[in-house]
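Database export, one record per block. Field names are fixed; values are copied verbatim from the stored entry.
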Amino acid sequence: MPVRGSVLVITAVALMLSGCASHTVSASDQAGSGTYAYVDDAGRQVQLPEDIERIAPSGPTAQLVLFALSPDKLVGLASNFSGDQFNYIDKKYAALPVFGSIYGNGLNLEAVMRAQPQVIIDVGNSASVEKLDDVQRRTGIPTVFVAAELHSLASAYAKLGRITGEEGQAGQLTDFIESTLDDVNQKVAVIPSDRRPTVYYGQHDGLTGVVAGSTHSAVMDAVGATNVVDVGVVGGAGIVALSIEQIMTWNPQVVLFAPDSVYETVAGDARWQGLGAIRTGRYCRIPGGPYNWIDQPPSVNQVLGVIWLAHLLYPDVFQYDMAAKMRQFYELFYHCELADAQVEALLAGSTFAK
C-alpha cells in the first residue's frame, strides 16, 4: 500500500479508538493514486485501486471464495480455520487476525483498519447497501459487493479476478466451475423425472432440515433431486426444525446427513427405522473437510458437492473418478495436495449404507 494510504488508515484507527468513530477517510484518498470507478453488484459505484495486494473478506462466504483466488492477499479472516481444517489448509493462515462478519455479529472495524486492507470484499447471494456504505464511510476503505451463488459462481470469479488482479487463477477456477456445472446440467436434463429421487438433508440431530429453494439446497437442485423440505421458509438461515413424524410424511427416497450428525446411530434408532430410506440403506453422510460439501457455508464447496451427489444418485450416468476430481478441486480451491489416506477418510460413509 502507498505510504500516504497507510498514514491515513493509522490516523483513522487512532481517531476511532479515541471516540471519533464518525471521522471518515475518503475511499479515493485511502486507495491512493491509480484508482478506477467500479459499479458493484449492489449497484454502488466504488473507487477501487488498480493494484490490490491487501484484501479483507466481509464474512465466511467471502473468505472461502477469496481464499481460493488469492489466499496470500488476505490480511485477515472472518473466522478462524481450526482443528481438522488444518489437514487441508496451511497452518500459516492461523496467524491472521479475525474480523468477524458484516452480517451476523458485525465486523470489528478497528481490527480491519489496523490490518490496512486496500479493499473489503463482500461475496454472497444478497447484500445490504446500508451496511456496505456504513462500513466504507466509517473506515474509508473501499467496500465492494460481488454476487455469487452456485449458478453464478463462475461469473463472480471473473469479476473478482479483475478486481484483485488475479485473472490467471480466476480463469482456472471459472473453467472448473463451468465445466462441472455444464456437464451435470446436460446429463441431468435427459434423466427421466421418475429416476430423480426425493431427498431429505438433515443436520445436527437429523431433525434440522435444509429448506428447498434456499442457497443451502442448491446442490440438490443442481442434480435434479427434489428436496422434500418444501415448507415455504426461504432466505435467512435456510434451515428449519422438524419432527421425525413430518419427515415420515414426506417419505424421502434418499436421506443425507451432515458430517458430525446422527449418521452413525440411525441404523439402530427405532425412530429413524420408520423411514424406508433408512431401512433400505439409502442414506449416507456428506463428506466434510475442510467444509461440508453441500452447504456449510454455501460457497465454493458446493461445486464439489454437485460432483459427489450426481455420482451418488446416478452412478450409471456420472461415472466420475471421485479421487481424481477431489484432488483437482482441493488443489485449485484449497491449495492442498490430497494424500490417498485423506481421500479415503473424506469418502468414508459417503456412499449408500447398503
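Remark 1: The first strand starts at residue 35 and ends at 39.
Remark 2: The chain has 13 helices and 13 strands.
End of record.
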